[in-house]
Design brief:
Largest sheet: 6 strands, mixed
Distance between the termini: 24 Å
Low-confidence stretches: 1-48, 483-489
Shape: globular
Oligomer: single chain
Order of helices and strands: HEEEHEEHEEHHHHEHEEHHEEHHHHHE
Radius of gyration: 24 Å
Strand order of the largest sheet: 1-2-8-3-7-6
Length: about 500
């Protein structure tokens, strides 16, 4: 998904999916007498610069009578299907009650008429089906994976429709989940990275709905009651506020029947209005005092909306700057040449409104100021000159090689369909994106990065101890010894 910083929650059910990876390309025919080892090596060499094949997706789309948008891909390789509902019902719709969206989503499978949470879980298990749910800033999701056999399918969809469309929100379940969330808040007080992240979003978004944590606050969670959950469900879990994605062993008629059944089970009501655009924040630095040997450094500024036409250029540009792991500008200069961090990462998180661009790393407390200055200098140099031609071509090859994995399994595809529908992207978006990436020039990337980023506009949050600062070690062309372990979080 294209959400900023998905929130981990104790009560949320985890998505359970099985990956159906693409079969490897057929080996080239070998001359008589060639050894199997030699043939495998030659085959790999011949593929080294060739991207993997990606599953061609014939995306069908329609709207249910109740107003839900449906996207469907027929795939008969396995006797099962994946169903994903995406609602504009994330924490940005909390309307002054932080955590309301999260609690509503977490409580979906806690009770329906005639069944408690245990009976619901046993019902899905008996059918060989898996239910999942989650809530983020833009969206809330509910998912089902089931066998496509008619009897199993019908029963699983019926149970799923009741869980999503008519939850009872039992009081005892609310008390249990609320206590889990409150216990989680106490644990988070010992996590400087989480403290810094929350402060960063508050500074970056101010009064905008993206500012508060998706899981709520210690002050807001105790105030939310069953009436609040019912009201939010009636308002946000309507068919017109939903996208239904279906992938798997179904005909078009069967997919239409499932979508109609799920849609008709949802509350009636309009789609929620779109969010306002956030205002650009005032740049600055906030420090959170925390007793640790490491200092967390987070730098952010407003990025882009999900449908921004510059996204391919920004995605590729960030892969070179800090989003592609080892070999990026930031990783090379900060970790490899100086050994200042275990890892440094940057990324755009496009959302319904302008999502954040964030650079995230930790370093030794006494080197925090120098490391922060180095990060800003590297970003400034990159914006000024852009990538090299060699960096651009390497990034294009890496994107082309990894992009097939985004549609490798039905679970991957259903997630892509959910995003396409939720953010109102064209059905050809995946093909358009890959083509746009390959067509980019150095100047295209440099222009887009400068259009949306400014080295002087960073909102910065640090979390760690106040200690006397030391100068940074000089860079070396020889790789610096890597840290012995992942630093504390």
């Amino acid at each position: 998904m294209s959400e900023a910083t998905p929130i981990r929650r104790l009560p949320a059910a985890l998505f359970t999916v099985a990956s159906l990876l693409l079969a490897p390309p057929a080996l080239a025919e070998q001359p008589a007498g060639a050894s199997s080892a030699e043939s495998r090596i030659e085959s790999l060499q011949s593929l080294s610069d060739q991207p993997l094949d990606r599953r061609a997706l014939d995306i069908q789309s329609w709207t249910t009578e109740e107003g839900a948008k449906v996207l469907f891909v027929e795939a008969h390789q396995l006797p099962m299907f994946d169903l994903r509902l995406t609602f504009a019902a994330g924490s940005s719709q909390d309307a002054g009650e932080p955590g309301l969206a999260m609690l509503t989503n977490a409580m979906l499978n806690e009770g329906i008429a005639g069944k408690n949470v245990t009976e619901i879980a046993q019902g899905f298990e008996r059918l060989g089906a898996v239910f999942g749910n989650g809530s983020y800033r833009d969206m809330a999701v509910a998912s089902l994976r089931s066998l496509s056999d008619a009897d199993k399918r019908q029963q699983a969809v019926e149970l799923f429709s009741q869980v999503v469309g008519a939850p009872t929100f039992p009081q005892e379940s609310l008390e249990r989940i609320r206590n889990q969330v409150l216990a989680g808040f106490e644990f988070q007080k010992q996590n400087p990275g989480k403290l810094a992240s929350d402060a960063l979003f508050e500074s970056l978004y101010g009064d905008h709905p993206y500012a508060h944590p998706s899981e709520g606050t210690p002050e807001s969670i105790p105030k939310i009651d069953v009436n609040d959950l019912n009201a939010f469900h009636d308002r946000a879990y309507t068919a017109k506020n939903a996208v239904i994605a279906l992938v798997g062993d179904l005909t078009r008629d069967e997919a239409q029947a499932i979508a109609a059944q799920v849609s008709s089970a949802l509350p009636e009501g309009p789609a929620l209005p779109p969010l306002a655009s956030p205002q650009a924040p005032k740049p600055g630095l906030e420090h959170i005092e925390f007793p640790s040997s490491q200092t967390h450094l987070l730098l952010a500024q407003l990025g882009i909306e999900r449908g921004d036409p510059d996204y391919p250029a920004l995605y590729l540009g960030n892969q070179i700057l800090g989003g592609g792991g080892f070999g990026t500008r930031l990783m090379e200069e900060i970790r490899e040449k100086r050994g200042l961090t275990y890892g440094v990462y940057s990324g755009f998180s496009p959302m319904a409104e302008a999502g954040p661009f964030i650079i995230n790393l930790q370093t030794r407390a006494e080197l925090a100021d120098g490391t922060l200055a180095l990060v800003k200098r590297l970003v400034g140099e990159y914006l000024e000159k852009g990538p090299t031609e060699a960096e651009l071509e390497q990034a294009k090859r890496e994107v082309a090689g990894s992009f097939p994995l985004t549609t490798a399994s039905n679970a991957d595809i259903v997630g892509q369909l959910g995003s396409i529908g939720f953010y109102d992207l064209p059905l050809t978006y995946l093909e358009d994106f890959t083509q746009a990436i390959q067509a980019l020039s150095v100047e295209d990337v440099r222009r887009a990065m400068n259009e949306h980023l400014d080295v002087d506009d960073f909102v910065i949050v640090t979390a760690g101890p106040t200690v006397e600062q030391k100068p940074l070690p000089p860079p070396t062309d020889q790789p610096v010894q890597a840290p012995s372990a992942v630093p504390e979080h």
